[in-house]
Amino acid sequence: MGLRGQANVGRLDQILRIGIGLVLVWIGFVDRSLIGEPVIAGAVGLFGLLNILAALVRVCPFYNLTGINTNNTDD
Q1: What's the gap between Cα 70 and its chain centre?
Q2: Is residue 51 packed enough to be buried (19+ CB in 10 Å), middle (13-18) or exposed (0-12)?
Q3: Closest by alpha carbon to 75, among 22, 2, 17, 8?
């Protein structure tokens, strides 16, 4: 399994994570007027960055903990 782990994020999941992650990064770090509290805005932006990272490496630690795998071998 190694450091990277086995890919458990499928293609559709990957696309959705990147799109939602970009929106969350925008809300958390760029347009802070949507969330008044800086700590919460930073947490939202960080969550977006983590989703983008999981999409790029196609491994989600939460999926590993829960046994979820959206990755098809046909992808």
Answers
A1: 14
A2: buried
A3: 8
